[in-house]
Amino acid sequence: MPLPIPHPDVIARALPDGSVLFHSSTEVYFGLNETGTLIWNALAEGAGSEEALTAAVLTRWPDASAGDVSCHVRELLADLSAEGLVVDPEAGVLRR
């Protein structure tokens, strides 16, 4: 299954230590730390797999545990999906 992509109605704004996402249709705000922001940006740029997201995080923070990072990537993807901030690129529907 392909990774989700940012919902077209979501606006991302950078902050000094992360970013904030705003879904203009549902008025949901969602804060991201630096790691979450890196993952969000990789999704927006078309990252091909969870492994690619994990690798991007490990490139930035090489001392992190690959297992922990992989778990956090999956958790963030689930959270973004639950909030309707990402869509399935194949189905074009919210991944909830």
Strand order of the largest sheet: 2-3-4
Question: How many structural domains in the coordinates?
Answer: 1
Whole-angstrom Rg: 13 Å
**Beta-strand percent range:** 15-25%
Distance between the termini: 14 Å
Helix content: 40-55%
CATH topology annotation: Arc Repressor Mutant, subunit A
Shape: globular
* Beta strand count: 5
Class based on secondary structure composition and strand pairing: alpha+beta
Order of helices and strands: EEEEHHHE
Named at the architecture level, the CATH assignment is: Orthogonal Bundle
CATH class: Mainly Alpha
- As residue ranges, the low-confidence spans are none
Number of helices: 3
Report the mean per-residue pLDDT as an integer. Answer: 92
Q: Main beta sheet: strand number and arrangement? A: 3 strands, antiparallel
List keywords for this structure.
single chain; 96 residues; alpha+beta; Arc Repressor Mutant, subunit A; three-stranded antiparallel beta sheet; 5 strands
Outline the structure in words.
The chain is an alpha+beta fold and 96 residues long. It has one domain: Arc Repressor Mutant, subunit A (Orthogonal Bundle), CATH 1.10.10. The chain has three helices and five strands; from the N terminus they run E-E-E-E-H-H-H-E. The protein has a three-stranded antiparallel β-sheet. A two-stranded antiparallel ribbon has the order 1-5. Strand 2 and strand 3 form a beta hairpin. Helix 1 packs across helix 2 and helix 2 packs across helix 3. It is globular and about 40 Å long. It starts with a strand and ends in a 9-residue tail after the last strand.
